[in-house]
TrEMBL record:
This is CoA transferase. Keywords: Transferase. It comes from the Bacteria. GO terms for molecular function: transferase activity. Signal peptide: none annotated. The keyword Transmembrane does not apply. Pfam families: CoA_transf_3 (PF02515). SUPFAM superfamilies: CoA-transferase family III (CaiB/BaiF) (SSF89796). The keyword Transmembrane does not apply.
Length: 354
């Protein structure tokens, strides 16, 4: 079959991670992504070649000075023949460069314009990097050991999540057949992802508490546990899982979810003692055949070695492939673009704006 997004052209004015990740996901599904870069190139080219490749494979690059009249005219030519434009910059910069639907609709009234910002197009220009957003939305405060400092995850969760959300909004508007403005902010995305935590506070007044080993606020036992060698993630969400686990671990009692929640400390003590009798890898091999959610804590190299089917090659770089697996479609993992290798006349005119 042809790629799911074959025939869709997207202009990206992206910086660093969130915007480029969004459009790379769409490029993996067959969209033509034209990456607009300023003179000198997008700043992430200065980080490392592998960093740039991990967020920009499969795209084309064109250098446009969007601050010049000539650049604005060239962008207009691209917009006239495209389905969407996605940008992640400060709101004032987005407006100054004319990267909004109100400004671009004169070239194509069906263009979808997606603005990715820290706090919304009308939310001001305060700096909004990933770690700042995690701090501002309560994520850092609820992460880590209860007796330790707030903690950040080891990857850019806000940027990546916002990229995926922006891609969803972009596609929704294309499917609608209407042009318009889509406004996606890092703050709003992270607040949305706090769903049940926010609901517990808004409806029950329950403020999030940190538990040792990242324990879940509702389910017991559902957290990391030390073992004879390494740590094990165990996630017991219902009584059936508990019955199977308790039988394998030699634990009696606490047969209902309510009992386990009420006796959290005692349950964790007996589970910790039981898990100390074997290694994390040993417990994983014992529990998985029983259908119990459990996994030994792995390093990134170990995780990549265990999933060779997710590793792809794009040009000179080995990368993690697309997580979206469409029956009958194998993504074409092309290299990240050479700076300014694309011209407006490279592709035939489509019916994007008709």
């Amino acid at each position: 079959m042809s790629a799911p997004l074959a025939g869709i052209r997207i202009i990206e004015v992206g910086v660093m991670l969130a915007g480029p990740y969004a459009t790379m996901m769409l490029a993996d599904l067959g969209a033509e992504v034209i990456k607009v870069e300023p003179p000198g190139g997008e700043i992430s080219r200065q980080v490392s070649d592998s960093y740039f490749a991990s967020l920009n494979r499969g795209k084309r690059s064109i250098c446009i000075d969007l601050g010049s009249d000539e650049g604005k005219a060239k962008l207009g030519e691209l917009v006239a023949d495209s389905h969407a434009l996605l940008v992640n910059m400060k709101p004032s910069v987005i407006r100054r460069l004319g990267l909004t639907y109100d400004n671009l609709r004169r070239f194509n009234d069906k263009i979808v314009c997606v603005a990715m910002t820290g706090f919304g197009l009308n939310g001001g220009d305060d700096p909004a990097f990933d770690y700042v957003i995690q701090a501002a939305t309560g994520v850092a405060a609820m992460t880590g050991d209860p007796d330790g400092p707030p903690t950040l995850p080891g990857y850019s969760s806000a940027d990546n999540s916002t990229g995926l959300t922006a891609a969803l909004g972009l596609l929704a508007m294309i499917v609608s057949g209407k042009g318009g403005q889509v406004d996606v902010s890092l703050r709003d995305v992270m607040l949305s992802q706090l769903n049940y935590r926010a609901s517990a506070y808004l409806n029950d007044g329950a403020e999030p508490r940190r538990h040792p080993f990242g324990a879940h606020s509702y389910y017991v036992p559902a957290q990391l546990f030390p073992t004879a060698d390494g740590y094990l993630a165990l996630f017991i969400t219902h009584d059936g899982f508990w019955k199977s686990f308790a039988g394998e671990a030699g634990i009696e009692g606490f047969g209902t979810m309510a009992e386990r929640a009420a006796g959290r400390d005692e349950v964790l003590d007996v589970v910790t003692a039981a898990l100390a009798t074997d290694t994390a890898a040993g417990w994983e091999s014992r529990l998985k055949p029983l259908g119990i959610p459990a996994a030994a804590v792995r390093t990134l190299p170990q995780a990549l070695d265990a999933t060779p089917e997710m590793l792809v090659t794009a040009g000179d770089f080995r990368l993690v492939g697309s997580p979206v697996h469409v029956a009958g479609h194998t993504p074409e993992y092309r290299p990240a673009p050479v700076f300014d290798e694309y011209t407006v006349s490279d592709s035939p005119v489509s019916t994007a704006g008709s």
